[in-house]
Amino acid sequence: MSGSLPYVLILYYSRSGATATMAQQMADGVEQVAGIEARLRTVPPVSPTCEATSPEIPDEGAVYVELDDLRHCSALALGSPTRFGNMAAPLKYFLDTTSSLWINGALIDKPASAFTSSASLHGGQESTLLTMLVPLLHHGMVYAGVPYSATELIATQTGGTPYGTSHLAGPRSDRSVDEHERALCVAQGKRLAKLALAMQTMREEAS
């Protein structure tokens, strides 16, 4: 990565690895578009113990997100496992700290999307994606789902919705992301990258 290219921030929380795998597949889709790159970031877990602290750098995987990662992104992909039909608490906790970006309108007219994973097929995938959409709209972002031109939406028998890619992890959270789900992640990443470039030009022309 050059460090000078615009980037799509792929921000996720993952416990069993499925959401992290989806994030990487989405990054692969972003990287297929010339002139933009993917930046993978995660959030630390939330502990009920007030004295608990997390290391500044995770032992593995993406590094922890900072506000500036979000401030300077050209687009955002938000990923979380389902938690009773909603996003996981660590991701929600981070979003609750973004008021300064909202006050300054830092994310207005930037495209955004979401992805999720659940243990059961009807475990709240679509409601999770829709609730993840809400704070993005408050920030003035432009939401982009997955259109049916991604034919895997019709073929899949597990994950995949027009609101964003989803994955069926199974009751033990050990089911791998399958070929249809991977293809949808890649397609979602590519679409977000193309929209990011187009809308960056629009924002520059309007300023």
TrEMBL record:
Entry-linked PROSITE patterns: FLAVODOXIN_LIKE (PS50902)
This chain belongs to which protein, by name? NAD(P)H dehydrogenase (Quinone)
**UniProt cross-references to PANTHER family, sorted A to Z:** FLAVODOXIN-RELATED PROTEIN WRBA-RELATED, FLAVOPROTEIN-LIKE PROTEIN YCP4-RELATED
Instruction: Give the UniProt family note.
Output: Belongs to the WrbA family.
Source organism: Vreelandella arcis
- Tell me the ranges covered by the Flavodoxin-like domain, including all copies: 8-193
Q: Which InterPro entries match?
A: Flavodoxin/NO_synth, Flavoprotein-like_sf, Flavoprotein_WrbA-like, FMN_Rdtase-like_dom
Pfam families assigned to the protein according to its UniProt record, in alphabetical order: FMN_red (PF03358)
